Amino acid sequence: MKINKLLCTVFLVIVSLAGTQAMAAPIQDWKVSLEYGFEDNWTENSGFFGLDHVKGSDPNNSGKYTKLGWGWDFFGLAPTSYISVAPKNQVDTPYTTGDPALNVMNFTHKNAPIIGASLKTASLYSNITLNTGDGTYILDGSRTFDIKFWETSNNLFASDEDNGDIFLLENPEDLVTMFEVDGYFYTLAFAIDNLMDIAIDQEMRDYFGYDDSVTTMKGLFTPENATTNFGASFTITQIQTQHTPEPATMMLFGLGLLGLAGVGRKRY
Description:
Blueprint: H1 2-18, E1 29-38, E2 43-44, E3 55-59, E4 65-72, E5 79-86, E6 89-96, E7 102-111, E8 119-132, E9 137-150, E10 165-169, E11 176-181, E12 184-192, E13 196-199, H2 202-208, E14 216-222, E15 226-240, H3 247-267
Antiparallel strand pairs: 1-6, 1-8, 2-8, 3-4, 4-5, 5-7, 7-15, 8-9, 9-10, 10-14, 11-12, 12-15, 13-14
């Protein structure tokens, strides 16, 4: 009687395993869509007699500005410095998990001697949509990178390097995101060329309202009288795999149990 119960139990296990769904394989092929732009919440320092301001232009499909210009030349005709991001939109760019970093955006700063208002803070909006190779929707994530801008005093007797401007990134931790699909975990990581540690002195702390504990921040440096481009790239890496035995493997295991039960029965 005990053997019959064992046989029944093993049979039920095998039947249940036969209905088990195999776990989907890790995703290898992606289609990546990206969009960038500056929010309209930038701030500026005092302008030239209050007559000029930072201006946004060249909006993308979502109405975010892809260019901010500030400062006026000595004839008061046009902004002389700007930052911009390009391209405005990137749709269904193919990428394979674990491949080398893919360049997806250029951040450009034209740094020129200016008079009048200059940028102080800005927010760079980024939205990324991931689909699998067959078009299945996976992830739609947006993030905003908070930027502080330090405009040098443009000393006529200093070198272009000494007159260089500085961008500070307040939330570099948002460059990396982890997400999960079907039990597999992936890291989506952005990297910005030449992102470095910037020393924060007392003058900068006073200007931006930082306390004394802030001594270094991640940021970018651009020399005076130059147009500098910073590439931004991303990678997708699988960081953890959940191993689930395939149904066929489990059925073989179950049949093995059934065979052992049969052997035990013969002994009786």
